[in-house]
Amino acid sequence: MSEQLNKRIFDELESLVLIDPHTHINPHSAASTTLADIMGYHYYTELAHSAGLAKESIEEPGIDPKEKVGRLVTQLGDLDNTIQLSWLMDICSEFFDFQDETITESNWEYLYDTAAEKMAQPDWEQQVLKQSGLERVFLTNDFDDPLEGFDTKLYIPCLRTDDLVFHLTKNETRERLGKATQVDVGCASTLREAIGELFEHFTSNGARACAISLPPDFSPVSVTADQVDSTVRSLFAGDDLNSEESKLVSQFVFWTLAEYCGVYRLPFDLMIGVNRRVYEAGVYQGQDLYDKRTSLIQYKELFNAFPKVTFPVSVLTSTSNQELVSYSWIFPNVVINGHWWYSNTPAFITFDCKSRLEAVPKTKLIGYYSDMYKLEFALPKFRMYRRVLANVLATDFVINRNWSEQRAIELGKLVLRGNVETIFSC
Amino acid sequence: MSEQLNKRIFDELESLVLIDPHTHINPHSAASTTLADIMGYHYYTELAHSAGLAKESIEEPGIDPKEKVGRLVTQLGDLDNTIQLSWLMDICSEFFDFQDETITESNWEYLYDTAAEKMAQPDWEQQVLKQSGLERVFLTNDFDDPLEGFDTKLYIPCLRTDDLVFHLTKNETRERLGKATQVDVGCASTLREAIGELFEHFTSNGARACAISLPPDFSPVSVTADQVDSTVRSLFAGDDLNSEESKLVSQFVFWTLAEYCGVYRLPFDLMIGVNRRVYEAGVYQGQDLYDKRTSLIQYKELFNAFPKVTFPVSVLTSTSNQELVSYSWIFPNVVINGHWWYSNTPAFITFDCKSRLEAVPKTKLIGYYSDMYKLEFALPKFRMYRRVLANVLATDFVINRNWSEQRAIELGKLVLRGNVETIFSC
Amino acid sequence: MSEQLNKRIFDELESLVLIDPHTHINPHSAASTTLADIMGYHYYTELAHSAGLAKESIEEPGIDPKEKVGRLVTQLGDLDNTIQLSWLMDICSEFFDFQDETITESNWEYLYDTAAEKMAQPDWEQQVLKQSGLERVFLTNDFDDPLEGFDTKLYIPCLRTDDLVFHLTKNETRERLGKATQVDVGCASTLREAIGELFEHFTSNGARACAISLPPDFSPVSVTADQVDSTVRSLFAGDDLNSEESKLVSQFVFWTLAEYCGVYRLPFDLMIGVNRRVYEAGVYQGQDLYDKRTSLIQYKELFNAFPKVTFPVSVLTSTSNQELVSYSWIFPNVVINGHWWYSNTPAFITFDCKSRLEAVPKTKLIGYYSDMYKLEFALPKFRMYRRVLANVLATDFVINRNWSEQRAIELGKLVLRGNVETIFSC
């Protein structure tokens, strides 16, 4: 009975057309063109490398896409237990009619060619959107993205600010800022003005969020323009900053972003907990890890200072999930955002999902985002989440709390879609 | 079969009459008089506020109880997924014959009036105790509570010591101490004497525990009267202390409390992990959160120094649960106490309960306390716990370990009631 | 259906003959001779002590084995809920035909005598190995173990290095090192040479791993012989070191061990997170606990510096499990090793096992080791693990991911045995 119940709820959730509130889609090339686009996703390259495939083999300069896939296939057998590989299998069966249980050295070429043929169809992108039940897709745009040449109603811009906060000490970043804003930055006040230009540009092009990923030890504090002015002047004069000065500038820029989020009424997505380049010899995008010793108490000052800014918060680890639940339960401006990266596997999603649904106002829960780089991944990732969500709704609400199925399904739809519309005004 | 098994065990646990080993009941006004007493519980005000209701609306000075309930009702729809709201629904159906699925703007007035009528019955308190299966209820008394005017056999005093440890630097606290003890405190030795008077007063009035809640960064260490004497003299002379001096006094008072717990054979309830006033603009009692970066290793010196004092320990976060299990497994004087506050929801209780029941001597587990402010909450909160406990006993003991149902039920009754009697000698 | 599925998978896993990749077996006395050997295991002495039995009673000098068991039996009733006691019951029923539900003061003597009779059989050790399905057993040898007088094909040596890294400041350790290696250590270079001798000795006697347990705050860093030379000279000249100097020597020795693991191609087992002697008055081996505030980020430099050394990593707490999953998912040289000590109970194993099997290449998972001191414990401990593993395979793979039973069983066998062979080359 319980399995049938799960299935009925899952089917209802599967029928829902979605808005994906966080991806890394390139709107100029949203869908894949070869299987290498799909199997080049860092989950496969890093897992294949972790299982023994040399980085040099995976990332050989100028390698042909088909050759790259062939090399990765040699290692897939070691990964077939992972949920990440199940996403790949789902993609292959859903989009390319692939029916084999595994991808092997004897069947991959046929798969590659079939996929290439499908992907070459002129409406492939639309096919994928339709088959995946995707209505709109949030992007993650560099701050100097012109936001031109794509439909911003379908692909919703989002201002990504990591470079501004953590890499302004690089010449390149400062040059990009000047070029993008046409502001001649030389002091804290003009730096703030330039950042304001970015918000103007993004919101006038339909942006619905500002976003940043943050290291475990980051603690935002208020830094005024006066406090940082001489440091900003030094920086833009080309001087090197010491680590204290760099930190001060980071804090100032971050605080300024939060202020503009208030002015422009943009939610500020915080993705908390990643250390970059921990495994320095890893493959592209497969080098980042974390230190679980982090706490949302580090954001106390921020959450108190900006009651009018909504902070959709993602945490990298399941050990931070309870803090996220508690902080969202108490702070009106903190909402919970999806299941991120190293916590995006069923065991962690299940536990985190259960604890969220039972303790946080239902209007403050953004169930899931795909985080995808290519459109084909929305289907298997959301399906994984919908399966977990259906089980949680069946067990914790219908069985344990005696809810009607319909009521449970409504709750599922709210966290899957309704809250995305409300929280991001889209 | 498994669902029927769960139900049979649950029914047996439900039939047990309980002693509630930790509450915030006011014995002079133990039951509610209007629905505002119930819906004014911080869980509802803070969740309604978190979902969007203004603090000013909830806490308007002089607001009529019925008006307050009416305002809270406007937000309840956003919270109906939470387990906290399920407690409210249980109260309304069990005590006030309310049968609707939700409380809405169209049915709340009828509910309010029905409840008021019921609560106006002269024996309402006794009705609630009986219907809830409550035999005795532990209190949380201010250190200067006269402990008069109520039945200390039914409402068992407990010496709450937060003010002494963390707020002795306030004039008001020192004045209250002097008044309560009639000791003219001026040095470390008289401070210790005054604290001794409190223990004398409480134990002669039937107190069965000393209790304190502690911030995540607190680490008790031995501080002798000699070490702190000059600082105590300054303090009681009216001087301001710096943070180091304040900390020293806190440590001294805390250590002194532990010593008296040994002398008077009182268990010392430690509730570890809360930071007060994190969300400064929050509603009353809805401002506290935490930093999960805390460890029971901070209590190493304490647990070693007082082998004869029993420490029933509560932790605020499920990420501290494994430490609690391990420390109770090793230290004879550390016992596990309930599921506290932010960990008091089924997902956390389930996992924490399973890990405790399988690794700690069964005589060292206090299953649950309600932490309630009004009597009506014991029923739904204990029921939530009993449901989880029944499932854990059915799955982990009857099914997985082949125990008889009767043996599993006995284990359940021990952690629900038997251990409360033994550990608190009541 | 699901229970039958679990059972079928469990039976298949039970039929597998194993290599136990980490134990504390003494190969000269591998099996027990009386029930006191079994009930003297620290799990029982520490739990009985935790439940109220005096240390003096348990550890009375010269106490007769039967008398000791009799005393422990008086406390067993308080522990019968624990999984640790279920191991004991399994041993008694499997090896000694004991059929009672509990061990009590009225039946223990019969059990003791029956067991003694069985254990007195000359082939008892072989009986236990056979009945337990054990083919080979890894040891934990002191660095100065002569490794003589036993079959190193059956009992595989492993170089345990805690003393070298953390206790070289003791005279005794330095004397043992000199005696074992015949190297006259007086400087960093000769210290390194002596350590090299140990690796030569161990690997020439069939050692398959180097191992160490580490405190929560340990962070390995590269220390060169030059940096530490004068300190090592002082130490071996008999001078006392301050804590900074001691730490430097520890770091140097640890780094040197990792270097030799590379040279001799030995996996380096890291068992991360234990604080020794936290409960100072505890029974033998029942004094150690931990500080959960530790992170694998502390091992960043090590994992990067030794890409050719395989590090099978155990963590003491389930709150570190997600880090272990993530680090093993990213670093090719980090593999996951079993469920250690305070995390070796079903609630933690279940969650940790699920999260590992779904996110880490299957070739990088060492499912379990017994950590036993006496051979009789392999059977119940591995059975506990196999039961959990069977449930996870049934639910997460056969039911949720639609795998065939056979495929799920193959995955189970790989983590139970296949990976032990591959990773330790045995």
Automatic annotation (TrEMBL), chains A, B, C:
InterPro entries: Metal_Hydrolase (IPR032466), Uronate_isomerase (IPR003766). Coiled coil: none annotated. Gene3D superfamilies: Metal-dependent hydrolases, uronate isomerase, domain 2, chain A. GO terms for molecular function: glucuronate isomerase activity. Its EC number is 5.3.1.12. GO terms for biological process: glucuronate catabolic process. The keyword Lipoprotein does not apply. Keywords: Isomerase. It comes from the Bacteria. The keyword Isomerase applies. This is Uronate isomerase. The gene is uxaC.
